[in-house]
């Protein structure tokens, strides 16, 4: 067993001062009945905890580190920019560069506003859609996670599922939640029903074009096409939450990979290169309702922060100039997820593997996972047991079943093979 004395001591101390000892619940290891490793440093595809255990990092800060941890180009950009000041609260050239870059990469984005997190991006995109349409209601999907703003904590994914019981949060008023309608992923009929029950009232449909917060669940054939069509017909704003998928499934995200144009998109994670950045953008006509141009208020003291912009621009530029990043991470994805699939098949284990490119999930269920209901059939104890075994063998996965594994440009075939060997040992094949 790995020595985790320092992490354990830190966790004891942390719990005195921080609720649950962590600043984000997904880090708590509660869902796997364990206590968190405290991370000291990261390098390329590796993480080192406070007890100097070295682990292959399959979280990548939950997605941002697509080039690997501490990529030299990103580090250099940050080191340079900090010399000129950390924040001005004023317009800067880098914000223009970032906005241009995002608009160039994503044909659906004609204007974009920078914020500080994915939560802010989705919250603001919805307010924009409501301001633009003059309607109140929105449709989201069970198991999709869009950050922790009040109206979106309804049947949400990620940490909210893993904590079990009720997926809704205490402290969200019925008033905040009442305009959030929920449909089932990969079930267009459930969407149609809401559109006919609330005719002319739906401001927006928001979804992860490839769901990645109930584990990875790809959209089935025509699901997104039909949603695109009904939104156009009903004058509803279609929002793709690409906080995970953006700049990952392809440079232009899931919308490029799947060939569907949303009206608005939200970004986070990769766009900041590891710094706290989010963004929302889309059709000019819609984005023009945002203040100071229009009546929809949205602001941020640190939005477009120069250090964060430098990190994000550098990472996005690198991705734009190196299409081989996608070739490589997708090939690694085939190797890892294909390998896991082979192992569980050989073992006759009641498990399913879903993946799209570099993100994937090993579900501890024999059902095909295509929505929230089927995801929830997973045996959480089974995942927890597997997780602990793999962590001890030096592969750091998400400490919860309903999350994705993330691959980066820094991972090697040898890393994958080491992880697969450990998984084979776990499943006894
Ligand atoms: C992580 C995530 C968010 C929230 O982003 P934060 O930066 O954690 O606020 C929103 N949507 C999706 C799809 C996410 O994966």
Descriptive notes:
The protein has a seven-stranded mixed sheet, sandwiched between helices. It is α/β, with parallel strands linked by helices and 429 residues long. It has helices at residues 5-17, 72-82, 93-105, 118-133, 159-162, 174-177, 188-197, 223-234, 253-258, 284-287, 306-321, 324-347, 372-375, 380-392, 413-427, and strands at 39-43, 46-49, 54-57, 111-115, 137-141, 180-183, 202-207, 237-241, 264-267, 278-282, 352-356, 359-363, 395-396, 405-406. Helix content is 38%, strand content 14%. It has two domains: 5-70 and 323-427, Alpha-Beta Complex (Aspartate Aminotransferase, domain 1); 72-321, Aspartate Aminotransferase, domain 2 (3-Layer(aba) Sandwich). The chain is globular, with a radius of gyration of 21 Å. The structure holds pyridoxal-5'-phosphate. Pyridoxal-5'-phosphate (PLP) is lined by residues 117-119, 122, 145-147, 208, 213, 241, 243-244, 268, 278. It is an enzyme of class 5 (isomerase).
Please report the first level of CATH classification, the CATH class of the largest domain. Answer: Alpha Beta
Helix % is 25-40%
Give the percentage of residues in beta strands: 5-15%
User: What's the helix-strand series?
Assistant: HEEEHHEHEHHEHEHEHEEHHHEEHHEEH
Average pLDDT taken over every residue:
96
Summing up helix and strand content along with how strands pair, one would put the structural category as alpha/beta
